[in-house]
User: Fold this.
Amino acid sequence: CPRQGSVCPESRARLDLVFGSNAHHATAGLEDFSHVWLIFLFDGNGMNYTPRPSVCPPRLNGKTKGVFATRAPHRPCPIGLSLCKLDEVKG
Assistant:
C-alpha cells in the first residue's frame, strides 16, 4: 500500500481477501460503494519496541506531535484504520 496515498493520488494498491470457500458472498454488493474502511494490524513493526507518547514526523522538520495526532505506526495498540477509494471488485 502507498505510504501516503493522498500525496500520490495515482498510486494503487490491491487487497486480496481470504474468506473461506465463498468469498464472493461476503463481498456481494460491495461494488455499489465508492469507498471502504479498512481495519488492519501494523504487523510489520514487530513487538520489541516501547511506544512513545510523542513522535517526530518527517514532514514537521523535527517538531514533535502526540502519537495519536500522527500516522505513526508504533502505537500502544497496533490497529490502523484507512478510508480507501474502491476502484473495482473482482471475484
Notes: The two ends are 21 Å apart (CA to CA).
